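User: Quick one: structure for sequence A, then sequence B.

Assistant: Sequence A:
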Amino acid sequence: MNKRIFTAALTGAIHTPSMSPYLPITPEQLIEEAVRVREAGAAVAHIHVRDPQTGLPNADQAIYLQIAEEVKRRCDIILCFTTGGKLGESAENRVRVASTLKPELTSLNAGSLNFALFHIKDNVPEWKHDWEKPYLEGTEDFIFPNTFKTMRQYLEIIHANGAKPEFEIYDVGMINNLAFLLQKGIAKRPVYLQFVLGILGGMPATLENLVFLVNTAKRQIGEFEFSVCAAGRHQIPMCTGSLILGGHARVGLEDSLYLTKGVLAKSSAEQVTKIVTIARELGMEPATPDEARQILGLKGLAKVGF
């Protein structure tokens, strides 16, 4: 198969407005970004939302709905909604989007970890908003909680609404977690994994680690589709490694603010264009949203709740 699914993570909950003037904040900006990445070759847009005035990540259901309805009106891209939300968001509010919008795809973090961002605050010379520095500093003493109970409850809600979980794998133990959930019938096949590399508290972003994760998942889980995303400067090398190993790739301003060393990306679409160009040099083509729906076994746009 020479088709690859490219995902663009548009804004996330890691970077703050002071880090880049190009980070999309408002619903209108996120809608435009989703359309741009579709035009650049992405089949999936990964959606977080933020307070339109301050840029603080949140889980505002009205903003999710506004973005979903307008993007659906303008293009056929698959929308993958986060159940991670902002750091510290309640478990109940994080998963609410699965029942509110009944989307095709949602993220599901496959275990707890120290999700640390405090070290990146030193790279910001000036803050636009009062919340930014304390938000980052607080992660020195923060555990991103995704317990077995939470994962079970999330999967029950996700499956009940016809969505497919994209399992976020930050470290090898999370593969074991997922294997257990499959064994107990809590998680369902076919499985879609997103290996997330380079987060402080998770697995380092190296090709050796990526190969280890893929091989471990084959032994523990069996058949699956997988994608890779990686923090910062590791984004394009790790995504290229994923393509070579037979996987898909996620880029976007959630994971890296840069297009190349020292050059801020003006849009996630620029990063999509870059990885699509690399893929084509390797003899691969970007899957359309409908091709991605077939590869991942999604229910289709006609069955979403927006």
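Sequence B:
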Amino acid sequence: MKMVATDARPRRSVLYMPAANERALEKAKTLPADAIIFDLEDAVAPDAKAQARPNAVAAASSGDYGDRELTIRCNGLDTPWGADDIIAAATSGAAAVVIPKVGSVGYLDQVSALLDQGGGPAALTIWAMIETPTAVFDVRAIAAHARVSVLVMGTNDLARELRSAHDAADRHPLLPHLAVSLAAAREAGIAILDGVYNDVKNLDGFRAECLQGFEMGFDGKTLIHPGQVDIANEVWAPSDAQVDQARKVIAAFEQGLTEGRGVITVDGRMIEHLHVVNARRTLAVADAIAALADSGN
């Protein structure tokens, strides 16, 4: 049976933190990110990987990060460190392992077997990174894998492999691939995270890309700098007006059913069951964000 992530869990801001940098790991405890990826891959130099692994495991098992969702990005299985990373992460207490350059179901099966070999619990899932043409072609099967709970767009690597301009305005070279991956995640009933924004000083550009990702339907965004957290949290949080409207839609629909009305309208617009489903999700997300805030994160 597929282990689908909790639908309303906030993943507005998912921050990569280099596991070799102990100061960064300490700082992450104070940041309002919904989730942390303790990174053993791109953010860690080869000569620092040996120390980064126990740092990531210690951080994930420490209990010092409140209710944030904690994950560990492992190196690929084609590297000297990948298998050991996955086995070490299995009993770290992390919610998931983030696996780069996933290209097939067979590759995911190898990762899952290593998690089992390391004693990982059944609830430990895989966040599969979609960052190659092969992954885009196989994304439906990847998303449907029993252990995959989240897809993560690796837009930098994907743009490089496609030979497209990854800093193009509106990301138009990548939009077809983002949309296909998003559709695969929705078909499988799992979450999907938008890729990183590289120009950390350009907060207006970052906000615009967040809005684009939100409007497309992504559940949140992966981040490379703490200064991006607040904007991502704001963009992916339902506004007070949206919460009020959701409550109004649900109340009108329920009253209409009680009264046996065939047509239900709110503010002059016809309301159908799909609008109620969306309204209930809005309230669930708002409640989950409020609970995370109340926990001190």
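The chain has two domains: 13-235, 240-294. The beta strands are 13-18, 35-39, 69-73, 96-99, 125-130, 148-153, 191-194, 220-223, 265-266, 269-270.

User: Thanks, that's what I needed.
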